[in-house]
Design goal:
The complex is a heterodimer of chains A (306) and B (268). Chain A has 306 residues and is of the alpha/beta class. Chain A is 35% helix and 28% strand. With 268 residues, chain B is mostly helical. Classes of the chains: A alpha/beta (306), B mainly alpha (268). Bound molecules: adenosine-5'-diphosphate (ADP) and magnesium ion.
Chain lengths: 306, 268
């Protein structure tokens, strides 16, 4: 039976009174690019540490392809990744650092060093000591180190955080490429755009708890869709909107009228407007951005209970 | 575990403190030999002290006597106290613990690397002391603790044996260093702590009223090698050291192992 890459059940981590991870359940399927989204301190790193077997859960369980990383590193077979900034021995060169981790991986990992360095574009600097590496270079070396394991599942903790815009773009392109190659990727992030751009599924965490889990498209759908309307006569249009059944929350703003409406309702509204002698200049669909949803979910206490 | 061991040795090869420790192990006998050649007197009140001008073979033995106070414990602690703590400092534990070696294997590799370094330090020290001592005082026969004359060939053999016996308490100190390194996660604290431990044990030994504990103190085991330099050889203190030293080493190793196996690797 094929086991799912990640199955997390009732995961809890307490630090004294602080509950860093609070009953998290996750199921990540083969081929997912999974965004683990939350503000700083939400418990993303702590969750990933438990998934990698670095810290012990207070309660709950993690299974990677059906195996428990708390019991043995054998559970990490086919799994690679890092939490927070990847760390290496500063007194060794990049290549020697990779040789070290490849030796720890065993198998044919050492034969992948050159390819991995090329993939992250560090071939030319491989002889330099890590001590002199920039944050971005270390981040890329971290990915190279992960690739040595030829992973089917890649766990990345805010890989683009702290990079300059170009570095961020390159990092996302790299992750995109790896995901397109069929790798299952779990990516923690506090940057909405990143998750929206890269991931097909998302879990939104806040204070250690999952506020939403599911497909990004689903999330957007549940958030409803809105329209923005510009007309030849906004005051009159607003009155038409108010009278139209199914149009909700119509309000006038500097850039036109905003409202919530189903597609069919919007179509009816356009006819009603024209019949009232109001010319439509612009009618644009405004789906809530993930950012809006994120703030709604993370700032609104009630949403967390959903 | 051989993979972990090999790479621990590689890491030691690239770290300054390894050379600081081994350098001290080599330099001290040279400096001592030079001092002996420049001055007439000697430490008459310690075993072999009065023979350092007659034969170079007395010099490594005098160094063993003085070295147990703090020099050898410090040399060992320098690396033993750092071996886990430096991973904490560099944040690299998470890097090596998410590969395909179990924590136990990595721990084993570290332990063997510390032992290798300690053995290297002791033997480098002994070898340098014999050569430097021989150059300044000659490779002449040695007078044993029983007053008999020991020919150079046998003297060399006995010195080698003494270094081996000396290693028993030394490796125990290394284990304490490893434990402190694992528990404190701080290199400086572990190095100083190991040294403090070794000094405190010596302090206990000279406290009045604690004479009964003396045979079981680690500091006493540092003198066990002297049994080899009696005629006939007195094996009793050596056999004693062979079981008392592990009394210190084994619990430290087990404790360090359990802590290393179970600890949370956060930070870094
Ligand atoms: N080792 C630790 N000891 C105590 N508290 C911790 C530790 N690690 C994390 N925390 C706390 O747990 C919470 C979650 O942290 P973290 O998982 O790093 O969040 P994120 O990665 O989402 O920013 C934070 O409040 C943090 O202060
Ligand atoms: Mg984090």
């Amino acid at each position: 039976m094929a086991q799912v890459p990640v199955e997390v059940r009732g995961l809890v981590k307490r630090y004294g009174d602080l509950v860093a991870v609070d009953h998290v359940d996750l199921t990540i399927e083969e081929g997912d690019v999974y965004g683990y989204l939350g503000p700083n301190g939400a418990g993303k790193t702590t969750s990933l540490r438990m998934m990698l077997g670095l810290i012990r859960p207070t309660a709950g369980s993690v299974r990677l392809f059906g195996r428990d990383p708390q019991l043995s590193v054998k559970a990490l077979e086919g799994v690679a990744g890092f939490v927070e900034a990847p760390r290496f021995y500063p007194y060794l060169s990049a290549r020697r650092n990779l040789e070290l981790v490849a030796a720890f991986d065993g198998g044919d990992a050492p034969s992948r060093i050159d390819d991995a360095l090329a993939t992250v574009e560090l071939t030319g600097r491989a002889g330099d000591k890590i001590g002199g590496y920039s944050h971005g270079m270390r981040q890329r070396l971290g990915i190279a180190g992960a690739l040595l394991r030829n992973p089917r599942l890649l766990l990345l903790d805010e890989p683009a955080t702290g990079l300059d815009p170009a570095g961020m773009r390159d990092m996302r392109a790299l992750i995109r490429r790896l995901a397109d190659g069929g790798m299952t990727v779990v990516l923690s992030s506090h940057i909405m755009a990143e998750v929206e751009e890269l991931c097909n599924k998302v879990a939104i965490v806040r204070s250690g708890r999952i506020a939403y889990e599911g497909a990004i498209s689903e999330l957007k759908r549940t958030a409803g869709s809105g329209y923005r309307l510009r007309t030849t006569d906004d005051d009159r249009a607003l009155a038409v909107c108010a009278a139209q059944p199914g149009v909700e929350d119509a309000r006038l703003a500097h850039d036109g009228i905003h409202m919530n409406a189903e597609e069919a309702v919007a179509a009816d509204l356009s006819i009603a407007l024209v019949e009232s002698g109001v010319g439509i200049v612009e009618m644009v669909r405004e789906s809530a951005t993930l950012e809006d949803l994120f703030f709604r979910l993370t700032e609104d206490e009630q949403a967390v209970a959903v | 575990m051989t993979t972990a061991y090999r790479w621990e040795l590689t890491k030691l090869r690239y770290q300054k403190r390894t050379y600081l420790g081994l350098g001290a192990a080599v330099l001290v006998p040279i400096i001592f030999a030079v001092a002996v050649s420049l001055r007439n007197g000697g430490p008459d009140d310690v075993a072999f002290g009065r023979y350092i001008h007659q034969t170079g073979f007395a010099i490594p033995l005098v160094l063993l006597l003085f070295g147990s106070i703090w020099m050898f414990p410090l040399i060992t602690a320098l690396v033993a106290g750092d071996i886990v703590a430096s991973e904490d400092h560099n944040g690299t534990l998470k890097t090596i613990l998410t590969r395909s070696l179990e924590r136990g294997q990595i721990y084993g590799g570290k332990l063997l690397a510390v032992f290798t370094y300690t053995v290297a330090a002791i033997f480098l020290n002994g070898l340098t002391a014999v050569i430097a001592g021989g150059i300044v005082s000659g490779f002449n026969p040695l007078t044993s603790l029983s007053g008999t004359v020991v020919q150079p060939g046998r003297a060399l053999l006995l010195i080698g044996g003494s270094l081996l016996v000396y290693l028993m308490p030394m490796l125990a100190i290394a284990c304490i260093g490893l434990l402190l390194s694992t528990v404190t996660r701080n290199s400086a604290a572990a190095v100083v702590g190991t040294l403090m431990f070794s000094l405190l044990v010596q302090l206990v030994a000279i406290l009045p009223g604690l004479g009964g504990a003396k045979p079981y103190l680690l500091s006493t085991q540092f003198d066990a090698w002297q049994g080899l330099l009696r005629e006939p050889v007195d094996w009793q203190p050596i056999a004693h050291a062979a079981w008392v030293s592990p009394l210190y080493a084994v619990p430290a190793l087990i404790a360090a192992y359990l802590v290393f196996l179970r600890r949370d690797v956060a930070g870094g």
